Amino acid sequence: MELWTEIKISVNSKDIDRASDIANVVVPYGIYIEDYRTLEQEVEDIAHIDLIDEDLLKKDRSKAFVHIYLEPDVSPAEAVAFLSERYSAEGIEHSIELLDCAEEDWRNNWKKYFNPIEVGTRLLIRPSWRDDYDAGDRKVLNIDPGLAFGTGGHETTRLCLEMCEKYLKRGDKVLDVGCGSGILGIATLLLGADSAVGVDIDETAVRTAKENAEINGVSDRFSAICGSFTDKVEGKYDIVLANIVADAIMFLSEGINDFMKDNAVYIMSGIIDTRADEVKQSVSKYFDIIEEHIDNGWACFAAKTKKNL
């Protein structure tokens, strides 16, 4: 059996939410969190008992941990360098360990934290292994993120989906740059889009996106492409999505106009709030920002092409 690499990141407990959010965006793989600050209350709420293992009670409450799992052919050095750079930029004290683990370990560790999620007013995101849900009148998006980023639980994905719900029109053509698990493009098809194209430089993400399209019965209207969107994608679109990182959004903004129809909407997310103004200033050279949402430290913008370009 090939061994995977576990990246274990130690941070101060007060920084765990920001640290896990950054890890979830910049590394496109499943994660899970160790945070013992509210151990007693959580055990009481979930198990309704006050008897806790002594070893758990001895855990250092001042520290918390983010665990990330990388498949054998992914370079841990690149992931560690990227994460360390992000944490340093955000002033988050951290240390990083690399460990070997079997594939079953990460699968069992993170799946148990992924629950059905209501998004906006029209969608329910359901993990493919969960049957305990009540969708009501909502469209059900069945998702198995596999090794690709995009479960719907993260603010960046949820903000994008809420913007899609607002600006998408029936019959639209959609382009999702950095599609990850395919969740955004598939969601737009469930909400009434005519077709969706997802593009990602990660072969694993492209494979996962295609599988999720099949699970949701939209594979005839969804295509996933591996490579740079400027080289691989053709045509013009009504909605363009980019749930990536701030630097990539700023880099892409000049050229992405070439793929947008007149009056198309460009929805951007994955932007840490401390960089929101920087991104807005950069993007505003080419677009008029028509709406912005900031939630739990993350920003999402909707924009249209400047008329004088």
What is the fold's blueprint, element by element?
Elements: E1 4-12, H1 16-26, E2 31-35, H2 39-47, H3 54-57, E3 63-70, H4 76-89, E4 94-101, H5 103-111, E5 117-119, E6 123-127, E7 139-143, H6 155-167, E8 173-177, H7 183-190, E9 195-200, H8 203-215, E10 222-226, H9 229-232, E11 237-243, H10 246-256, E12 260-272, H11 276-283, E13 287-295, E14 298-305
Helix pairs in contact: 1-4, 6-7, 10-11
Please outline what is shown here.
This protein has 309 residues and is an alpha/beta fold. The protein has helices at 16-26, 39-47, 54-57, 76-89, 103-111, 155-167, 183-190, 203-215, 229-232, 246-256, 276-283; strands at 4-12, 31-35, 63-70, 94-101, 117-119, 123-127, 139-143, 173-177, 195-200, 222-226, 237-243, 260-272, 287-295, 298-305. The chain folds into two domains: 4-111, 2-Layer Sandwich (Alpha-Beta Plaits), CATH 3.30.70; 155-305, Rossmann fold, CATH 3.40.50.
